UniProtKB/TrEMBL annotation:
<dbReference type="GO" id="GO:0005829">
    <property type="term" value="C:cytosol"/>
</dbReference>
<protein>
    <recommendedName>
        <fullName>phosphoglycolate phosphatase</fullName>
        <ecNumber>3.1.3.18</ecNumber>
    </recommendedName>
</protein>
<comment type="pathway">
    <text>Organic acid metabolism; glycolate biosynthesis; glycolate from 2-phosphoglycolate: step 1/1.</text>
</comment>
<dbReference type="InterPro" id="IPR023214">
    <property type="entry name" value="HAD_sf"/>
</dbReference>
<dbReference type="InterPro" id="IPR050155">
    <property type="entry name" value="HAD-like_hydrolase_sf"/>
</dbReference>
<comment type="similarity">
    <text>Belongs to the HAD-like hydrolase superfamily. CbbY/CbbZ/Gph/YieH family.</text>
</comment>
<dbReference type="InterPro" id="IPR041492">
    <property type="entry name" value="HAD_2"/>
</dbReference>
<keyword id="KW-0378">Hydrolase</keyword>
<dbReference type="InterPro" id="IPR006439">
    <property type="entry name" value="HAD-SF_hydro_IA"/>
</dbReference>
<dbReference type="GO" id="GO:0008967">
    <property type="term" value="F:phosphoglycolate phosphatase activity"/>
</dbReference>
<dbReference type="GO" id="GO:0006281">
    <property type="term" value="P:DNA repair"/>
</dbReference>
<dbReference type="InterPro" id="IPR036412">
    <property type="entry name" value="HAD-like_sf"/>
</dbReference>
<dbReference type="Pfam" id="PF13419">
    <property type="entry name" value="HAD_2"/>
</dbReference>
<dbReference type="InterPro" id="IPR023198">
    <property type="entry name" value="PGP-like_dom2"/>
</dbReference>
């Protein structure tokens, strides 16, 4: 493997500790509109999917009009102070370290543009990333068009890029672009679930991730 030039990070569950707030937000809007709320396991399972698919799975018993209302309500509510999420401890430090090494750093997420921008501003990390890509702007994960666009933008080959995420969807996303993946276990899915997709590595801490990247960058 060539020395890495570009790292692509997922956002929710990888850098931002947002799963609890995503679940609580969906439960809150379900209560507001008197519909059946999703269970936490379902919210966790759909993390990384396209927004439309995730909402459809979380709210399978509502009609099309109700689903659109819930989507709009979620997009507004998740950006409020009530559901503000912070980065995982250690995330900011590793990003800053990698930036200082001269690597290109990119976010590739299924999150909406408005929600991602708000989260990055609140956590004061927007200046550390060279590019951000959201699901509404491309075919969503695991289709690889977003990654192809990123590689073309920075003129790098697939073996100079690494994907870092927390779901099977992230692994499949990278594999479809012939990119290797490191998965983290502190996000949406367990190590056993992640192993089914056969990522290159699975790590349990940012310290472990930094140690692996030190040998690759």
């Amino acid at each position: 493997m060539k020395k890495l030039k570009l790292l692509v990070f997922d956002w929710d569950g990888t850098l931002e500790n947002s799963l609890d707030n995503i679940y609580l937000c969906k439960k809150a809007i379900a209560d507001k509109y008197n519909v059946t709320p999703p269970i936490r396991e379902v919210v966790s399972r759909v993390l990384g999917m396209s927004f439309d698919s995730a909402m459809s799975i979380c709210f399978p018993y509502v009609n099309k009009e109700q689903l659109e209302t819930l989507k709009n309500e979620f997009q507004l509510s998740i950006q409020s102070d009530k559901f503000k999420s912070n980065l995982y401890v250690g995330a900011r430090e590793i990003i800053a370290t990698l930036k200082n090494k001269g690597l290109f750093l990119v976010i590739a997420t299924s999150k909406s543009r408005s929600a991602l921008s708000a989260s990055m501003r609140v956590n004061e990390v927007d200046y550390l990333f060279d590019m951000t890509c959201c699901g509404e702007e491309f075919e969503n994960k695991p289709k690889p068009k977003m990654l192809h666009h990123i590689m073309a933008k920075f003129n790098v080959n697939h073996d100079e890029v690494l994907m870092i995420g927390d779901t099977v969807t992230d692994v499949l996303f990278a594999k479809n672009a012939d990119i290797k993946t490191i998965c983290v276990t502190w996000g949406a899915q367990t190590k056993d679930v992640l192993n089914t997709a056969k990522p290159c590595k699975i790590v349990d801490s940012f310290k472990q991730l930094e140690g692996i990247l030190e040998t690759l960058c």
